[in-house]
Design goal:
3 domains, alpha/beta, Arylsulfatase, C-terminal domain, 19 helices, 604 residues, seven-stranded mixed beta sheet, Alkaline Phosphatase, subunit A
Length: 604
């Protein structure tokens, strides 16, 4: 009953469906039957003279079960507050070592974690004094009814053993079905979601099933060679949480990007003036960039940019700061070939969010002379609030201005995200990109290469909120889009783009056709897209439509859960300080219709 009440409280607090409450009641209820069966069997075989043994069993096992449930609920509280979804055991196992070691900022360190874990168990054991004796007495009465002799306990133990075995079978079957089920209520039940390796990222919908089916056919039909195609190395650099408006290359007053600014000024690097992430979170930002689809269509098997390039003979490399191995089944989406994937879970020199590990992985890459055409996806964590700030990167902060764990979560984000520190880390990312150019050049991969530099999403720095994931303001989704190409290359559209346009642009520059399912369009085309669609991954879902209009750019934001609509003129008001939703009544019906169609998985 307590577990069901907690599940219902989670559903109410985080705006979720109440359907998983029944599933959670079934899981914990079956486990309790298993537990009672075990306790009854112990009571049956322990003679009355040794009753203290069975009473201790009645104390310890329920106390341990209660503690484990509290741990599960506490972890889910942290995960739902942090990214709006349930925790998985895979995530806990992956992040626990660095959190325990203190290498990852966390509101509580070893002492806090230990105090919570041991304190919860100690409290449960203390409470168990109240239930142990009556529970033992009730179980003893049940297993030794009138007329049954307790000859060695063997006959008395038969009934609880039978109950236990039946409950174990039912519990195992229920959990196995829940973990494997594509039914969303089961995916969000605490125990089932904890045991899933892929987490919550690929929630099934009928639209996604159709996308997966279509992409399988497109993959099979895509040609292995295309007449007139060029074989150039391609490098895609995604900098986590990188805002365009904090970059010198985009007009920011501080010298945060000296290298990239120099490249833009020289003409070797094209710059898209207004580029936007499809959502304010890494999973959908990364997958949208690689797959040229918005989040509602993302599946683990879709036909994306690395797939296309592998199909035509490219070697693909993934050099990724951060723990991609543990995050929402991303390895299933990447489908990297053995030996070509290196991320923060594999480093032996640094912590998982230290961007220097990218160069540790690059050491494994052979020189270009020994390889064919290659595609590199490089992910940098510098500007993420968890990204490690290197000692030499303090320009706008003091070297002794360290960030230590132990603060309250929201205060910790304020400290981690403070604007001066963020500017330091933008400059740090710029320096690491310069180093990446140098080392790729030394290996021969930069000769006639195509390099795209972008972000997966933005980052709130206290304008309205901290961090990322819940909103669609410019600080959340306005990202850079820079393209290093052959001298003299002219892009027809450098005015307005989103992440879904990156992969088609790369294929266009290589002379390869984009799969028919891709939503983006090449920036080599002169026609600017009529609008783009965006959503939050975290709940409550917000949706946005960006609409070029009368030489400007409008952003419509709808939050259906709150019945709220906002409209901003991003040219006149880039800080989105005044909603002009009442100034454009002629546009609102079409904007609302696009959001409804997108939200309802319909055509738009």
């Amino acid at each position: 009953m307590l577990g069901g009440a907690i599940a219902a409280a989670f559903a109410a607090a985080f705006g979720k469906s109440f359907h998983p409450v029944a599933g959670h009641l079934a899981v914990v209820g079956l486990w309790d039957v298993v537990l009672l069966g075990v306790l009854a069997a112990v009571t049956a075989v322990v003679p009355p003279a040794r009753a203290s043994w069975s009473r201790w069993t009645c104390r310890v096992l329920p106390a341990l079960t209660l503690s484990l449930q509290v741990y599960l609920y506490a972890l889910n509280l942290v995960s739902n507050l942090s990214w709006g979804r349930n925790i998985t055991g895979h995530l806990v196992a992956s992040f626990a070592p660095t959190i325990w070691s203190g290498r990852e900022p966390f509101p509580v360190g070893r002492l806090g974690i230990s105090a919570f874990a041991l304190g919860t168990l100690a409290l449960a054991l203390a409470l168990s004094r109240w239930w142990a004796t009556p529970l033992d007495a009730a179980l003893r009465q049940w297993v030794t009814p009138t007329g049954v002799r307790q000859a060695g306990g063997s006959r008395a133990a038969l009934r609880p053993i039978a109950v236990t075995l039946g409950a174990v079978v039912l519990f195992t079957a229920t959990v196995t079905h829940a973990v494997a089920s594509d039914d969303l209520p089961w995916k969000t039940e605490f125990v089932a979601s904890f045991l899933r390796t892929d987490g919550f990222a690929f929630e099934p919908t009928e639209r996604r099933r159709l996308v997966a089916h279509e992409d399988a056919a497109l993959r099979a039909a895509y040609p292995a060679s295309v007449a007139g195609a060029t074989r150039r190395h391609v490098v895609l650099v995604i900098v986590d949480s990188l805002r365009a408006d904090r970059m010198q290359a985009y007009g920011y007053g501080r010298p945060t990007t000296p290298f990239l600014s120099e490249m833009v000024a020289s003409g070797r690097m094209a710059q898209v003036a207004q580029a936007f992430a499809t959502c304010p979170e890494s999973f959908c930002g990364i997958t949208s960039t690689l797959a040229s689809r918005t989040f509602r269509d993302i599946t683990p098997t879709m036909f994306h940019l690395p797939d296309v390039l592998r199909k035509v003979g490219y070697q693909t490399w993934f050099l990724l700061s951060g723990n991609h191995e543990a995050w929402n089944g991303l390895p299933r989406f990447y489908r990297a070939e053995p030996g070509t994937f290196f991320d923060g879970s594999m480093t032996r020199r640094y912590s998982m969010d230290d961007d220097r590990l990218v160069f540790e992985g690059l050491e494994r890459v052979p020189p270009a002379a020994q390889a064919g055409p290659s595609f590199f996806y490089v992910h940098l964590m510098s500007t993420h609030y968890l990204g490690v700030q290197l000692p030499e990167s303090h320009v706008f902060t003091r070297p002794e201005d360290e960030v230590r764990p132990g603060l309250e979560p929201y205060k910790m984000l304020e400290r981690l995200n403070k604007p001066d520190r963020y500017d330091d880390k933008v400059r740090q990312a710029d320096g690491l990109i310069r180093r990446l150019f140098d080392e790729l050049g030394a290996k021969g991969y930069l000769e006639d290469a195509l390099v795209v530099i972008t972000g997966d999403h933005g980052e709130g720095l206290g304008e309205r909120h901290w961090a990322h994931g819940w909103h669609l303001f410019n600080e959340d989704i306005h990202i850079p889009l820079l393209i290093y190409d052959r001298p003299g290359t002219r892009y027809a559209n450098l005015a307005f783009a989103s992440q879904v346009d990156i992969a088609p642009t790369i294929l266009d520059r290589l002379g390869l056709p984009a799969p028919a399912s891709w939503e983006g369009r090449s920036l080599m085309r002169a026609d600017v897209k009529p609008y783009s669609l965006h959503q939050t991954y975290f709940l409550p879902n917000r949706f946005a439509v960006l609409l070029p209009h009368d030489g400007g750019l409008l952003k419509f934001i709808a939050t259906p859960a709150y019945g709220k609509e906002e409209l901003y003129d991003l040219v006149a008001d880039p800080g989105e300080t005044r909603s002009v939703v009442g100034d454009h009544p002629d546009l609102l019906p079409a904007l609302r219709a696009r959001v409804r169609a997108y939200q309802g998985d319909g055509p738009y």
